[in-house]
Sequence to fold (83 residues):
Amino acid sequence: MPKVISLVELKPGVPVRLESIAGGQSVRQRLFSLGFHVGDTVEVKTQGILRGPVLVMNLTTGNSVAIGRGIAGKIRVEVDGVS
Fold:
């Protein structure tokens, strides 16, 4: 059974499916405008030091964007075999 975790818990380089966005309408709308949709395959490229931003690549569209850790914590992803 797939495990659902937040994007900040994910190790870099692991492709996962975007499951849901646990934020308000403005957060969902902002991510939608950046090209991130439920069902897309995404991958964390890097995580900033000292709670900095998270660089995320949408493998479905090819977009890369730096997302603040607070918003990244609201993005739930479905992953297999990640502890």
